[in-house]
Amino acid sequence: MDDKERIHIIASGANIGKTVHLAIKEEGHVSRIYVVVEKDICTISKTDNEVRKNIKLNIQDAIREVKETSRRMKIIFETVWMDSISIESVRDAVLQIYDKFPDAEYSFNISGGTKPLSNGLFLMSIWVGGKVYHTPTDDTIQRLFIPKMHPRDISRNENLGRILDCFFSPIIEKEKDGGIAGRNLFQEMKKRYQPVRDTGDKTTKRIYSRGTLTKNLAELIEDGLITEANHPASKKEKTYFITEDGKFALKFFQMQKRKQPEK
Prior knowledge:
Distance between the termini: 56 Å
Structural class: alpha/beta
């Protein structure tokens, strides 16, 4: 196990004690857990009615459960107490954590807490490049994917969209799990290729090279639109898979193409 900090930040809620293990399992390793909670939650006021009182007590119990889970799993635990919850105050609180650990990997559970708390954590996940999770029940977890590349950016290099479209081509050979071997992807892209820029030299015949494919794939991988794995039959061969973000980006790209006026 490496020494890289992996920080999980949780919006306080009554069920976080029951769901924290889901995120830990999903992440594989968490080194620090922060629970963000309003200070008012820790105090039972005379003005609180029974409903409000029970909500506070349930959240307090849930925070203790998260703390106990952290202790048992040897994860550093800390509660971030806030005077009031707003998108701005949540942003600043996470920024303070980020200032201490700028190189850490971040994940967020935004299921609990008020809307400003959840929204503030979601916005900060974009700033720090973190993963976002939602736990709709005590035994299910859902990741909310945040595209690293805006789908419109694909339109600047249409070959990126063509690569994504290859995953749905009835012609190209696919592995059982939907992946495409690099050699098959290259052959298909040679047929689909169109130069991104016109060099002005009408006599020059431009072809799609392996170097261009490698460059395009690296960009798509970096932006989380496809993934790469070793081919099961060859150590030198790679297999490529489209992600959920990639599928969405392709749909957006295709819609943009349909809206463009015919030349």
